[in-house]
């Protein structure tokens, strides 16, 4: 390195003025395809979170960034800046944002380094990284298996090597230690509509209640519990469990208190998550969270119980479960719509009187 520096300053002053300046200029002006879209290019990550017609996108520091494209037709990145690439084994004499530079035959050349193939992780496309320190399955849905790290959800992928070591990148000029940054992206909630405002539950749900009668009247679910029995309707998801946590919303009309509970899939655990005021003379909307810290179990039943125990009827409309919180609950359907109640008109049957038959005289009571 010292020999190169002496040669550089003593014999190639003009090269220093022109070549190095040109190197900095071309490096600084190197095109990044995502900059024209208002985003910088990724500097550390090669994990593809999303891909569109523009290119591949990643996330750094909570912001979108473009993953640099490989130049078609050539594997030499330095050619786009007017330089050739170095032969294998060339020593790095200078490092900038473009890469490592060497000198061959008194000319700058780019050192080609093996780049990792961008790895996609199934959960990245949903806004979550893959787990890097855990293999424990906390939740399973149609997307895949989920774990948690640092209080955040992460996808469990068998192709990802679990490690806690920090990645270290070493050049001839300095050693840079890069730690993986945690990007927090809120997971989009999913919704399960259990009952709307019709004369039946949605497909896949059944009532497993007790000491009560469930009917459908005036576009609502009508529940009448046996007096002093604290009867209930208990709606079971027959297809799968809901998972853990989340929130529930429904509209209720009742003069008595209604308790809301959830029950674990093994039927060993249940918890009261909230109750209504008991003075809802017209339909009122309630939303309750299911705290996973208080109830860390998967559940498949939502129970609405006569909390007053007086047997007064209560009416339910738009019972919906969300994997998100009650504060972030966004109705997935129009819950203001209630089908009009239609009344069937009585059908009047016609009455017929026989006046004349094919006989020799008129019936009694008729004259010509």
From TrEMBL:
InterPro entries: CBM10/Dockerin_dom (IPR002883), Dockerin_dom_fun_sf (IPR009034), Galactose-bd-like_sf (IPR008979). Residues 31-68, 75-112, 120-157 form the CBM10 domain. Residues 1-30 form the signal peptide. The keyword Repeat applies. One of its GO terms (molecular function) is hydrolase activity. Coiled coil: none annotated. Keywords: Hydrolase, Repeat, Signal. Pfam families: CBM_10 (PF02013). The keyword Transit peptide does not apply. This is Galactose-binding like protein. It comes from Neocallimastix californiae.
